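Data availability (excerpt). The following record was deposited with the supplementary files.
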Amino acid sequence: MKKITGLALLMISFISLNAQGLKVTGALKNLADNTEVSLSDGVTNQEVGKGISKDGNFIITGSTKSATIFLLGFKGMEQKLPLFIGNENITIAGDLQNVAALKISGSVSHDVYQDYMSVLPPLIEPYIKSMQANQVETNASKKDSLTKLSNDLSTNVTNAFLKLTSKYNQSPVSALFLLQFANMFPVIKDGLPSIYGSFTGDAKIGPFADILDKTVSSAELGKIGTVLPEFKQNDASGKSVSLSSFRGKYVLIDFWASWCGPCRAENPAVVKAFNAYKAKGFTVLGVSLDQDKAKWLEAIKKDGLTWTQVSDLKYWNNAVAQQFGIQSIPANFLIDPKGVVIGKDLRGEDLLKVLAANVK
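Predicted structure:
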């Protein structure tokens, strides 16, 4: 037993490599001593490791089943740094007062993530601004011009997105962005099965791939013309609320959360539709993906959401959201008095148009 063959040495080396965990090493200017630095899973929001800074340095260790999005937080600092990493040795260097310029190295996945972020946000920002301007514009001619502009900008974004997914069809980062863009752009949502079908390797491993697998397999669920399945969930007082209890009314099942910026931006449009049609048999059933009950209730009050709200406070693991394959929010289904889906993912004026055509 004193001799170890070359094959055995190779196997030991392989096992050691597989056992490697996640390690984040930081060397940052303007990081005060004894600052708690934490690393949280961006999907589950669970802390996976933490460290204490000294002389601008810190080390955090942990492990993950697959490369995914993490959030690096510094106590006393609201902004968190996204890291798309796996069980790798990551180094972060630079000045904490200039987070955008921090140098992050050691992860191929994060390099891909940075490429996506360098291309897409600059294209998305003008698109969102054009959509917001369109919602408040009352002049018909200007509204038509804004609609054309929004369509052109949308095409620019989706073309850039598709180019990136083609380039990185083996990266789990592409799975994350596919989830996000499928909810923002109908053309991406319609093509989701085909786009995801082109992915290979690590792009089909991890939490985002798991959600995409479920989404593709349940693609028929919630299609226009089908009856939306029954579900039950508790309201803020703990009372069970069922979808079937709303039969006889037009109902918008609205998936949202207090922490979701786009959801909060969309809430005024939902309030407008509710006030305009509540006397004609229309209501809203909010399904929240919150974790913090106090923040959920605060957002309901602040945004004036006077309709029924339910949640199991399980974040992305919300049972109803999982049942319907919700991969990003805001998301919604509009059903008629018989429970038949007559619209989905309706935003702003689109919701009012569908209601005007159906609710008399």
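Summary of structural features: Residues 108-136 form the longest helix (29 residues).
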